[in-house]
Design a protein that fits this description.
Oligomer: single chain
CATH topology: Multidrug-efflux Transporter 1 Regulator Bmrr, Chain A
Mean pLDDT: 94
CATH architecture: Alpha-Beta Barrel
Number of strands: 9
Low-confidence stretches: none
Strand content: 25-35%
CATH superfamily: Regulatory factor, effector binding domain
CATH class: Alpha Beta
Length: 206
C-alpha cells in the first residue's frame, strides 16, 4: 500500500528548528549519508562531493518511491573543523575540513543504501559516490542559533553562542555544525535571505 509522502522537515521538526537567540537543546540520534573532504566551500572538491552526496540521496529516494515509501530529500548539512588550535572560521578557507550530511528517514538501512549506490554508479558512472557513507550520529547536548543573513556574518551569531556557553559553564564537545535551511548553492539566493542553523555540541567544563 502506497503511503503519503514523508516531509522530513516535519518528521524531525525539532531537529530543523532553531530560534534567533542562542539556546541549549538535546539532539536525538539520526541516520545520515555523509562524505568528507577538505578545502574551500564552492571549490572543485566541495562541488564534486556535494554532487555525489545528492546523487546518492536521490538514488535512495527513488528506490524507496518505487516501493511506496516516498520522502522529500532533506537539507544539506556540514560539520566544519581545522587541524589547528585556532577557531575554524579564523583559518584560511582552503584549510577547512568538512563532513557533509543529508539526513535519512529512520526506515533506511545499510542494504537500501548499498543497492541505491550500485544503481547510481551504474547509471551515472559516478565513482565518487563510493565515498559516501551511511552513519548514525547523535550529538546530544548542543548550543544552537538560527543565523539569518550572509555566511560572512556568522561570527556575530557564533559570539552569541559562545557567550551562552560561558554563562552556562559549557565547552565544545565536537565540530561546529551547520544546517542550510535556505542556502546560496546551487541556486543564487540573496544573502539577506539565507537561513542557517548553527549548532555546537557541548559538555560541562571540568
Amino acid at each position: 500500500m502506497k503511503r503519503e509522502k514523508i516531509n522530513l522537515l516535519k518528521e524531525f521538526k525539532s531537529y530543523y528548528t532553531a530560534r534567533t537567540e542562542p539556546e541549549i537543546v538535546d539532539i536525538e540520534e539520526g541516520k545520515f549519508l555523509t562524505i568528507e573532504g577538505k578545502g574551500a566551500p564552492g571549490g572543485d572538491e566541495f562541488k564534486a562531493k556535494v554532487n555525489a552526496l545528492y546523487s546518492l540521496a536521490y538514488g535512495v529516494k527513488m528506490l524507496m518511491k518505487k516501493q511506496g515509501e516516498d520522502f522529500t530529500v532533506a537539507k544539506l548539512e556540514g560539520f566544519w573543523w581545522v587541524d589547528s588550535d585556532k577557531p575554524w572560521h579564523k583559518v584560511p578557507r582552503e584549510e577547512w575540513c568538512w563532513k557533509l550530511l543529508i539526513r535519512q528517514p529512520d526506515f533506511i538501512t545499510p542494504e537500501i543504501v548499498k543497492t541505491a549506490r550500485q544503481e547510481v554508479i551504474k547509471k551515472k558512472k559516478m565513482e565518487l559516490v563510493k565515498g559516501v557513507r551511511f552513519k548514525k550520529i547523535k550529538e546530544g547536548k548542543c548550543v544552537q542559533i538560527l543565523h539569518i543573513g550572509p555566511y560572512s556574518t556568522e561570527p556575530e551569531s557564533l559570539a552569541k553562542m559562545k557567550e551562552l556557553m560561558e554563562k552556562e559553564n559549557l565547552t565544545e564537545n565536537g565540530p561546529h555544525h551547520e544546517i542550510y535551511l535556505v542556502m546560496s548553492y546551487p541556486r543564487k539566493v540573496p544573502e539577506e535571505r539565507l537561513k542557517t542553523i548553527l549548532r555546537q555540541p557541548v559538555k560541562n567544563k571540568n
